[in-house]
Amino acid sequence: xxxxxxxxxxxxxHQLQEMKNxxxxxxxxxxxxxxxARIVDDAGIDVILVGDSASNVxxxxxxxxxxxxxxxxxxxxxxxxAIDRALIVVDLPFGSYQGNSSEAxxxxxxxxxxxxxxxxxxxxxxxxxxxxxxxxxxxxxxMGHLGLTPQSIYKFGTYTVRxxxxxxxxxxxxxxxxxxxxxxxxxxxxxxxATLATEVAKSVNIPVIGIGAGNxxxxxxxxxxxxxxxxxxxxxxxxxxxxxxxxxxxxAVSEYIKDVKSLDFPNDKEQY
Length: 272
Ligand code: KIV
Fold this sequence. Notes:
By secondary structure, the protein is α/β, with parallel strands linked by helices. It folds into two domains: 5-241, Alpha-Beta Barrel (TIM Barrel), CATH 3.20.20.60; 244-272, no CATH class. It contains eleven helices and eight strands. It has an eight-stranded parallel beta barrel with strand order 1-2-3-4-5-6-7-8, surrounded by seven helices. α2 packs across α4 (69-80), α4 (69-80) runs parallel beside α5 (101-115) and α5 (101-115) crosses α6 (129-137). The chain is globular and about 65 Å long. It starts with 12 loop residues before the first helix and ends in an 11-residue tail after the last helix. The mean pLDDT is 97.
């Protein structure tokens, strides 16, 4: 028997906390548009991230820096229209929160008001803590993001594993505590050693979601187009591909082209 829409229990930040408390892992994937978000929500994902990775995946940029607040809101609106159950987190894009906390609050309010999403995510620890607090003070749930923070790629210089050195690992642990104390409802840890991620997940009470951070954390996130194999050039060690959609879709398109050229499509049953 299918569940009526009104009976679907929506995911909340409180439920994520309860999942961590009882040791149930949290599933999270990105989505940027209505059709993919529908599939992901229907499959029962806990959290959908409208990530600024849309800059790479949807727009073809080679970093997350160019995407604008207006573009993020457009993606978030499309995802919100698709969702019955998942909690929706939207990335604050580069340049929309680092300047000062008032600007950060304005950007977060625009996302919440104009898209109808449930929370925002931003990258960094002590450097952005005033912005985190200001957004939280308006009642907007905030997810933190530490480790490899792609908006800082020009500072890092590469997309390699972060926090392998003692100093950077110590700062990451302090930042995780700081974000928890400020009131963040969860943290993403990206591309750091699994032992460090496990340690952080044990040291804070809020859920810690990993990407390339091992399985000692409270949940996992991947970029949807990467795990479906829509993107094919990006192959980091942490990525598990569940499909090879690039090749499958290319095959389908090639068949269509062949059918059109050979007059096989449309056939008698496919016309009026
Ligand atoms: O934008 C994004 O897709 C992300 C994930 C990699 C966590 O921030």
